[in-house]
Design brief:
Layout lengths: L2 H5 L9 H13 L3 H15 L4 E6 L7 E7 L3 H7 L2 E3 L4 H9 L3 E3 L10 H7 L1 E11 L2 E11 L9 H74 L9 H25 L7 E4 H12 L7 E8 L3 E4 L1 H19 L3 E12 L13 E10 L27 H11 L3 E5 L7 E7 L2
Parallel strand pairs: 8-10
Antiparallel strand pairs: 1-2, 1-6, 2-3, 4-5, 5-6, 7-9, 10-11, 11-13, 12-13
Helix pairs in contact: 2-3, 2-7, 3-7, 7-8, 9-10, 10-11
This protein binds adenosine-5'-triphosphate (ATP) and magnesium ion.
Adenosine-5'-triphosphate binds next to α10 and α11.
């Protein structure tokens, strides 16, 4: 598209050069799209009687869609809902893209070119769209208009010249702001990656440390179990049951301690075919005594996924998730533990870091507690991060470590007012 086309209708009109320079300077100062939108809206109000504006973008790599980057006035709510629309939705913008000329519609209610449904919905009266140029081609439109009571306001020659010059200045300013925002995004992504790496290194360190402690604990536990094992439950009468319970719990503690020793080692050992439904049943039986009476545990299963895993490690991961849910709900509430099998396709894996397409066995632990604050959700897997007076902050670090060891990952979500939901994904056999 030849740039002169956009300005063809302005030939012979007087352009206020000083104003153009001032506007250019103001637009160059904006560093974000939001700042740019505010500046353009202010400048539009300064040079015309229009009180609402919008910026449309025709990305060359997406010729079939129009992206509305920003809007003020009645258009704002519409754009917030659907910022990207197929070409054809806004015929006035399509006309501008095709002709390269400003499109002026004095009264959209009676103009044959306007989208009448939209006009009625928004209460449009006058609509003026001028081209946004970049590198000699039309890349978008700057639109202004009136609505409802403001009535029809046809632009004067002076207003039109100012708007067309604003549209021309807007192209490079938008390009620069988008480049700045891309740069910031890349910077943030890199920072997030670095944080993740740091936390992995910390997990590695904690793994080694806990392996050392667990090794000593394991030896002491062995002595304790051996000593208690010498007492005959029958000799204690009714209390014999207590001894049996204590020995069961000790056996589980030993399994966990052994597990911690494994966590410190490089590779997982002793993987076998494991039914997740079975692991959940076993784990819940063991943790049940520590769940308050007022907390209801609801178990469900959709399929019976089988994974290659070390059963005690899976038990430990489920235990940590359920105990966190217990801590979150307090004395009264609900914990849902669901086992299911999921197929993730190439699209779905994009939203789930650490995943790949294929079949997954999933253990979901959902609670009715207060959920996790937005600013904390990125930290909860960091080793030593805890909000509990007696917490170690290791529980979730261990869960994600176990998931990674088995080629899986952990997903967490906490929609406002709905409690927390953790999902342990393990590759299904
Ligand atoms: N279900 C949940 N609901 C709300 N917050 C949670 C939930 N699970 C974890 N958290 C938050 O994540 C933090 C870290 O959890 P993690 O299991 O790693 O350690 P912890 O529970 O604090 O300590 P420990 O596991 O040693 O008892 C918790 O302190 C809590 O703030
Ligand atoms: Mg915990």
């Amino acid at each position: 598209m030849i740039p002169e086309r956009a300005f063809g209708m302005m030939r012979g009109m007087r352009v206020d050069l000083e104003q153009v320079l001032r506007h250019s300077g103001e637009l160059q100062r904006a560093r974000t799209l939001l700042e740019l939108t505010r500046t353009i809206d202010r400048l539009v109000r300064g040079v015309s009687r229009y009180r609402a504006s919008w910026i449309a973008w025709f990305a060359p790599e997406r010729p079939n869609e129009v992206r509305i980057l920003a809007a003020t006035g009645p258009v704002e709510a519409l754009v917030r809902e659907t910022p990207v629309v197929p070409r054809g939705t806004y015929p006035l913008l399509d006309e501008l893209a095709a002709t390269g000329q400003p499109v002026i519609v004095p009264d959209a209610r009676v103009d044959p070119r306007s989208n009448k449904e939209l006009v009625a919905q928004l209460g449009c009266r006058t609509v003026v769209n001028v081209p946004v140029m970049l590198g000699g081609t039309i890349h978008g439109a700057l639109g202004v208009g009136t609505f409802d009571d403001q009535g029809v306001v046809t632009p004067t020659e002076e207003e039109l010249v100012s708007l067309v010059s604003l549209g021309a200045l807007l192209g490079p300013a938008l390009d620069r702001v988008q480049a700045l925002e891309d740069r910031d995004r890349i910077f943030l992504e890199r920072a997030a990656l670095e944080r993740h790496l740091e936390s992995l290194q910390r997990v590695e360190m904690m793994g080694l440390l806990s392996a050392g402690i667990a090794h000593d604990l394991n030896n002491l536990l062995q002595v304790t179990v051996a000593s208690l094992g010498r007492i005959k439950p029958e000799s204690l009468g009714h209390d014999g049951e207590l001894l049996v319970d204590a020995l069961d719990a000790l056996a589980h503690i030993r399994a966990i301690a052994k597990n911690l020793v494994h966590l410190g080692r490089e590779s997982s050992t002793g993987a076998q075919r494991v039914s997740l439904t079975e692991r959940v049943a076993t784990t819940l039986e063991i943790v049940m005594p520590s769940i308050p009476r007022g907390v209801r545990i609801v178990r469900s299963a959709h399929g019976d996924p089988v994974v290659d895993a070390e059963p005690t490690q899976i038990d430990q991961a489920i235990t940590n998730l359920v105990l966190n849910a217990r801590d979150a709900v307090g004395d009264v509430g609900r914990i849902n533990v669901d086992v299911s099998e999921h197929e993730l396709d190439a699209r779905a894996v994009l939203d789930r870091p650490g995943s790949r397409p294929g079949r997954w066995g999933v253990v979901q632990v959902r609670d009715s507690g207060p959920g996790i604050a937005r600013d904390q959700i990125t930290k909860i897997f960091d080793p030593l991060f805890t909000t509990k007076p007696a917490g170690t902050g290791l529980g979730l670090a261990v869960v994600s470590r176990i998931a990674e060891r088995h080629g899986g990952f952990v997903a967490v979500s906490s929609p406002p007012g709905e409690g927390a939901c953790f999902e342990l994904f393990l590759p299904a056999r």
